[in-house]
Amino acid sequence: VSAAMWGALRGARRPPPPALRRGLAKPAGPRSVRQLREAEEAAPVFQYAGKAAKRKDRIFVWGFSYSGALGVPSFVKPDVGWKKPRRIQTTPYRLETAEKISSVACGYGFTLLSSNTTDITKVWGMGLNKDSQLGFQRSIRDRTKGYEYVLEPSPIPLPLEKPQQTRVLQVSCGRAHSLILTDSEGVFTMGNNSYGQCGRKVVEDETYSESHLIHQLKEFDSTVVQVVCGQDHSLFRTKKGAVYACGWGADGQTGLGHYNITSVPTKLRGDIAGVNIIQVSSYGDCCLAVSDEGDVFGWGNSEYLQLASVTETTQVNIPRHLPFKIGKIKEAACGGTGNIVLTEEGNVFVWGYGILGKGPNLIETAVPEMIPPSLFGWSGFSPDIRVAHVRCGLSQFAALTNRGELFVWGKNLRGCLGTGRMEDQYFPWRVTVPGEVVDVACGVDHMVSMVKSFT
Amino acid sequence: VRGPRFRRLKIGAGHRLDVKASGVFVLGIGHGNKLLTDLYNCHLTKVYTVGGLFGKATDDFSDTGKLVEKTTFDHITREKLERILAVIQGTNHKALLMHSNIDMKTQEAYELAVKGLIRPMGKSPPIITAIRCLQLTLPEFQLEIHCLHETQQYLRKIVHEIGLELKSSAVCTQVRRIRDGVFTLDDALLRTQWNLQSIQNAIWDCQLKVKTELEKTLG
């Protein structure tokens, strides 16, 4: 019995169930070319971007951060223990925004971002708010008080009649006031009004901080298409080509023929009467306007030789034509002490005082000097590079090429140039931004740029 | 008397060219080796044509390596590629100015920058002075790259990074040096011309070019 039992057990090797049957194993070895090719063809294909992938719009900020103007609260008050407060952001830093931003403006320590959406929230502001230049930002801790510094892009409530139809076209910021241009409801102004720069009557001993007042300006000869803030004055350009101004006039920057304060926007005369102006620019106390024929007109402060080509006086209170023979002018920008223009051929001319961009030897000039195009990347290898836009901060200049590159030069106040270094830059230097720069706004010690991603 | 004319030649090589690449390779013979060090100190640019293929990524960035990933590439257009190349050229131009060790605050730095003559005259990481796309027929493309202090593997890495930047992947199929300083493809000898007479003629033709270039750069 035992022998038969053992034999039955040993012999009864049941075949394994069909699912677990294995073939004989093949020896391993270096894979042949055919095996490699088959493995390659069988590998999965990943898709990171489809054919209709859109390019994303981004905002990059850099410069002095303690005023909150960069909109990154962790630079001022770190939210995590290992982070240290960052006083200066020397290279471009990405700012996450809720909506696609269409217009940016940098003031003296604060920034405004606006989107042309029809949602309720159209404008965001960050930075200094001691004169309510960002509107009333209600404090969470005490509902009756407002914030003096806004560290994050916070919505600015506008008293619109039709909030879901009106679109915000453009924003502009001065020293302590800001202007918001809408398409159908005129111009909204907020902030300091001690010189009438907000377009309303000056009230004596008015406290501007924590003020809810936002003034609306509607009476112009036609729709306003551009608003520009100087240091303590405002300029409005209308569709018919006229220019209106209000605010401080002690340097003649209102261009109205006197040196007093103007608190109601008044039309400018002088050499621009009857001329169709297509662009106005100002940031300090000097102003420039470009006509559709390519002529440039200037008024305001001339202590730094900005208008010395037409007059010896240091204040010009009526617009004067600047007879430069440099070609038809397409765009102009004013800084605190220097001016820059862009001609139709794509050449850049600078004049005034300060670091003008032609090396340390050129400190001041009354006549425009051209900056060689080779400094903007033009060469025999890439001959179709042109400068497309020029912008000015208080003592910096910025130029955008048609390839989307950003060049900056001037005084590097608290790292505002974005080059990664703290030294002043005497000739145009590229700023490395991961994307194609569409527009840039320059402030006193910070800059904000609108960038499209590559793919 | 019969026998080989030259015995025991001292031959020195110019800039390296690795096994998978091809093109102009400069050699110095005998007393020419001294000129080789002078040419190295001139820091002249070299020009390469680099061929690439979209859709694959390998571990050594060339098409003979082990496959890492396959991606789609139908979203790539010539415009996007040129944008990426413009940015590469821009950042490398910045690196060029920074490594040239000139104080940016002086007037002479400004004058040299205007003329485009700023170049690192010492050791520096690889810098691309100019890059452009010669042709793009998906999935293949060809670039012309002017560079300094580079290695061919660095150029393959650049091709891989261009692929990544375009949200796809790329491998390098061909690296060919078409100019090394003053020596171009026309001066180069083919495999069939590696005989005494052609070598002597080639040396004779290039002597004048090398002398003028050395005088111009090293003074």
**Count of separate DSSP helical elements of chain A:** 3
List the strand order in the largest sheet of chain A. 3-2-29-28
Low-confidence runs of chain B (pLDDT<50, min 5 residues)? none
Poorly predicted runs of chain A are none
Structural class of chain B: alpha+beta
Estimate what percentage of residues of chain B fall within beta strands: 25-35%
Shape of chain B: flat
**How many E strands of chain A?**
29
Mean pLDDT of chain A: 89
The greatest inter-chain interface is formed by:
A-B, 38 and 36 residues
Shape of chain A: globular
N-to-C CA distance of chain A: 83 Å
Radius of gyration computed on alpha carbons of chain B: 20 Å
Structural class by secondary-structure content of chain A:
mainly beta
The gyration radius over C-alpha positions of chain A equals 31 Å
Round the mean pLDDT of chain B to the nearest integer and report it.
89
The description of the largest β-sheet of chain B is: 6 strands, mixed
Helix content of chain A: under 10%
First CA to last CA of chain B: what distance?
A: 45 Å
The level of helicity of chain B is: 25-40%
